[in-house]
């Protein structure tokens, strides 16, 4: 592989979505340069990536909000064609308790990276946004034109603010081409079970809670509410396999690489286009893994939206990307990953 013109800095490259993306980048012929401070990621993720790829990857340990540190990375590597910026705090509940931590970290890192892009003539950035920007949409499925709703949490607000920062930079004719990917609900793990999600403490998200309950780490799963306006009363989301999501980043880089304009802002929904309820997830998990899950119905969780799923036509046509793996695939892979952890 050429040492030139395929290098991409991946901030948060040891994290859940980052690690899967690093694998897909290498598979597609890119040369990922991982930058991670390992605050919410484990060194074992790097070993997992290297086992899958049967090669070493480049890793810099440090904070991507640190201008001097990042300048050193760029100087060391040269020929960086773009950046994928995953690194961010992401716990919705914690962000309500510690808003300054979230506003400082999540915006500072993006600002630093944008400054460095101008200083070093790096033109392409892919940013991790979220379907949280839509809140509870008035019309489903949501398209990229659906109105943004006031954020439910400081975390969600940082995603909105970062999108605005990027859009303002493009409007100022700063020479950057931006893709913001609005992720729906990523789940699952690499089919090899070498990398996957490593939640800190008690998981907030559904699927890690399901797999930990099945593994006996948690006593039982509580389904947060069954009186919503859905086919079985439980909330509905668009769950996307993390490997499909990872591939969307490769497509986004390819798309940016073809741009001749100097300054563009592009937003895409990245989901499957199909909604599944909490009970759909539980039933599918039980079926595909032949396990009985201990769960109970509890009250609604504050701040949950009732239902949201994506219209993915724009990503299908413009990025030439679409999700290929099913909910069943994701839940099989999530369970295989959980079992691999238990053995440690
Ligand atoms: N759920 C349960 N029990 C649990 C955990 C979750 O019933 O123990 C339910 C939730 O109520 C929700 C669904 O499972 O209906 C999915 O919940 P997650 O926490 O996995 O995902 P969310 O859709 O709430 O959160 C996701 C991202 C956040 C983002 C948010 C915004 O994880 O980063 O979408 O919509 F902010």
Q: What does the model show?
A:
The chain has helices at 16-27, 44-53, 67-77, 92-97, 99-119, 154-171, 206-214, 242-257, 278-289, 313-319, 327-342, and strands at 7-11, 31-36, 58-61, 80-85, 124-130, 177-183, 185-187, 221-224, 236-237, 239-241, 264-270, 276-277, 295-298. It has 344 residues and is of the alpha/beta class. The strands form four sheets. A seven-stranded parallel sheet has the order 3-2-1-4-5-6-11, with helices on both faces. The chain has a two-stranded parallel ribbon with strand order 7-10. Strand 5 (124-130), helix 6 (154-171) and strand 6 form a beta-alpha-beta unit. Helix 5 (99-119) runs parallel beside helix 6 (154-171) and helix 7 (206-214) crosses helix 11. The longest helix has 21 residues, at 99-119. It starts with 6 loop residues before the first strand and ends with a helix. 47% of the residues are buried. Residues 90, 92, 130-132, 155-156, 185, 204-206, 209, 221-224, 235, 237, 278, 301, 304-305 line the site of uridine-5'-diphosphate-4-deoxy-4-fluoro-alpha-D-galactose (UFG).
């Amino acid at each position: 592989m050429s040492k030139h013109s395929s290098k991409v800095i991946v901030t948060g490259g040891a994290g859940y979505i980052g690690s899967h993306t690093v694998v897909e980048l290498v598979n597609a012929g890119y040369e990922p340069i991982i930058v991670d401070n390992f605050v919410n990621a484990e060194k074992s993720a790097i070993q997992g990536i290297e086992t899958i790829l049967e090669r070493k990857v480049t890793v810099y340990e440090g904070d991507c909000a640190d201008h001097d540190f990042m300048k050193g990375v760029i100087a060391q590597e040269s020929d960086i064609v773009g950046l994928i910026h995953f690194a961010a705090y992401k716990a919705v509940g914690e962000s309500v308790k510690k808003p300054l931590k979230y506003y400082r970290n999540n915006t500072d890192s993006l600002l630093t990276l944008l400054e460095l892009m101008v200083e070093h003539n790096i033109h392409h950035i892919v940013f991790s946004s979220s379907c949280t920007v839509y809140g509870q949409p008035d019309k489903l499925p949501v398209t990229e034109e659906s109105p943004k709703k006031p954020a439910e949490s400081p975390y969600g607000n940082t995603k909105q603010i970062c999108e605005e920062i990027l859009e303002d930079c493009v409007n100022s004719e700063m020479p950057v081409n931006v893709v913001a990917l609005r992720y729906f609900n990523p789940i699952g793990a690499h089919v090899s079970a070498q990398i996957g999600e490593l939640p800190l403490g008690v998981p907030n998200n559904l699927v890690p809670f399901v797999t930990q309950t099945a593994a006996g780490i948690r006593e039982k799963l509580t389904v947060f509410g069954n009186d919503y306006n859905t086919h079985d009363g439980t909330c509905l989301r668009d769950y996307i396999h993390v490997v499909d999501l990872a591939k969307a980043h490769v497509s986004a880089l390819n798309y940016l690489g073809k741009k001749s304009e100097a300054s563009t802002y592009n937003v895409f929904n990245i989901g499957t286009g199909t909604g599944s309820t909490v009970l759909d997830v539980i039933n599918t998990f039980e079926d595909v893994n032949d396990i009985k899950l201990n769960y109970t119905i509890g009250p609604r969780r504050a701040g949950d939206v009732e239902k949201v799923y994506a219209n993915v036509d724009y990503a299908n046509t413009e990025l030439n990307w679409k999700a290929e793996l099913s909910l069943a695939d994701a839940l099989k892979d999530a369970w295989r990953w959980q079992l691999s952890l238990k053995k440690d």
